[in-house]
UniProtKB/TrEMBL annotation:
GO cellular component: cytosol
Ranges of residues in domain STI1: 8-37, 41-76
Molecular function in Gene Ontology: polyubiquitin modification-dependent protein binding
Highest classification ranks of the organism: Eukaryota, Viridiplantae, Streptophyta, Embryophyta, Tracheophyta
Any GO BP annotation: ubiquitin-dependent protein catabolic process
A Pfam match: UBQLN1
Protein name: STI1 domain-containing protein
Length: 129
């Protein structure tokens, strides 16, 4: 979720290259490759194993295409900026959590996560600490 602005700006510039974008789309639309990527992280693998709807989304080529588009990445970066400002990544995460907690009180936690490119499961895991 969080990374330096320079990293995300560079990534956005790289993704605007048509050759790179086409290569990424080709790789990400391959179900075997996606299963391999999704299985690398045990926490992510467990999350996908327990949520068939999430697994289907992560294997949907249209969803992956939208998720990896330069426009979506720029939108995600703009949303991230509201938390980070000039703060460290740790403080940005605390700010994101606090805002999620407020939305959760209003029974809007999932919508908040979706709008701000956050994972609800991650916010719940932090809340359980």
């Amino acid at each position: 979720m969080f990374g330096s602005t320079q990293d995300t700006t560079s990534l956005s510039q790289i993704m605007q290259n048509p050759a790179v974008s086409q290569m990424m789309q080709s790789l990400l639309s391959n179900p075997q490759y996606m299963n391999q990527i999704l299985g690398l992280n045990s926490q992510q693998s467990n999350m996908l194993g327990s949520n068939s709807q999430l697994r289907e989304m992560m294997q949907n080529p249209e969803f992956i295409s939208q998720l990896t588009s330069p426009e979506t990445m720029q939108l995600a970066e703009a949303e991230k900026a509201q938390f980070s400002r000039d703060y460290s990544d740790n403080l940005a995460l605390v700010r994101a959590y606090e805002a999620w907690k407020e939305a959760e009180r209003d029974v809007a936690g999932y919508e908040y996560c979706w709008k701000n490119f956050l994972f609800a499961q991650s916010m719940k895991a932090i809340d359980a600490l």
